[in-house]
Design brief:
By secondary structure, the chain is of the alpha+beta class. It has one domain: Lipocalin, CATH 2.40.128. It is about 15% helix and about 50% strand. It contains two helices and eight strands; from the N terminus they run H-H-E-E-E-E-E-E-E-E. The protein has an eight-stranded antiparallel sheet with strand order 4-3-2-1-8-7-6-5. The radius of gyration is 15 Å and the shape is globular.
Length: about 120
Amino acid sequence: MADILSILSKSYRSSALSSAPTSGKYVAVDPDAYQGTWSGKYANGKSFSLSITNVSGFRAQIRYQSEGTTQYQQVLIKDNSFRFGDTKFTLSKQGQAVIKNVVTDPATGTTYLDTAYATQDS
């Protein structure tokens, strides 16, 4: 039973963060639009920060921090967005982004999509 729930959970996470299929190739992005420190808060009051560095072409390095969790990853930017772990970053306009994070409730095991808004620090 646990295996089935694990498979369903992974499937939900994949579909919850996926967007409409895109076509075309990766193209170079404006480094200034992404590079820097981004911060915001989830609906539950949990704050996060995202540091984006080394933007070159359509690649970037990120460091995500949120209350005890730190992730480092190289990402590929396409259609103004990129994914890292269970999280998706989408640039909505200059200096503003939408962060969607799949969260698993430890008490019930259910998953939900947590949406937050981030601003680029000057």
